Amino acid sequence: MPQSPRTGRKGDVLAVVSQSGPTVSFFDAASDRHLGHVQVPAEPHELCFDATHRLLWCTLTYQSGYYHANGGRRTDLAVIDPDTRRVVEIVDIGPEHGPHGLAPDPARGRIYVSVEGAANRPGGVVVIDTATRRPVGRIDTDAPGPHWFAIDPAGTTGYATNKEAPFVSVVDLERGVLTSKVEVPGSEGLAVSADGTHVFVAAPYADFSAAEGRPTTGIRIIDARTSSVVDTLPTEDVVLPVHLTSTGKLLAGEVRMAADPGSALGHHAPGRLTVFAADTREQVGELEVGLFPLTVTSSPDGRLAYVACAVSSTVDVVDLETLDRLARLDIAKLGEAGAHGLAYLPRPA
């Protein structure tokens, strides 16, 4: 029977972090039915699926709060069995702290984790062996707060975005060294093209208190061969998450604020999912989503997008062919709050 274009594949699962839960919830990708959740330690942020060992990795970033306004940085990650929905291990990477971004390299059996700096060391990327679940290396990024991290398809080059530092850190994953800095005005999410030739970076850093004189909001395109910005895709509002689908669509989550006489920052308005064609760099559409889109992912076939919105604590399921919202997963109704990290888990072979 042909698969309906309005659902995910039967047996696939979507995992969703509730940052303030703190939990990871699981949903049937075909029906959007809630399957259950697993409790994790405080302030989970991002997710990464290790298909080789069929385990889900989750960064535990702070004791409480968020970037630059937290009750202390954590030093661990939770490893979760998504099929039994249980935590199988808490991996301590101390003295490294503030883990956030995750990038898998299944060919080499590694996961890369971005970590914040300390008084005696800059921020960096911790290299974890997925077989032993232990750190096997560290790469400095020469910036205090690397947040998102992505690698090229070859697994040889990594890119760390830095919120306040005015550059993207480029690292050689084979030699474990920083090789260059690409000038951008602070940065958020990023994605690497399927052929590894370009990197798409959200910039500037989402500092809503500094709207006056802020650089053009949008996505900077970095030429990987020259480590330089070659183009900018402008957006109306600040972009946080950036994601590339398997079909070459570039997805950007824009955070929107509305004027409020009682607040200098205003209040949250519905966010926007903006879609570009990565090859032509043309905008092909947009769609209103929940409040404060923070993470975006897609189904392996590139038909569906999932947009986690932290303030509304929702996940919008979007048909990328029609740009219709097919469903809204209401994480808040489950008694959770702060939808954040996402992972799409194909059914077991």
Automatic annotation (TrEMBL):
Transmembrane segments: none
InterPro entries in UniProt: Host-pathogen_enzymatic-act, N2O_reductase_N, WD40/YVTN_repeat-like_dom_sf
Protein name per its UniProtKB record: YncE family protein
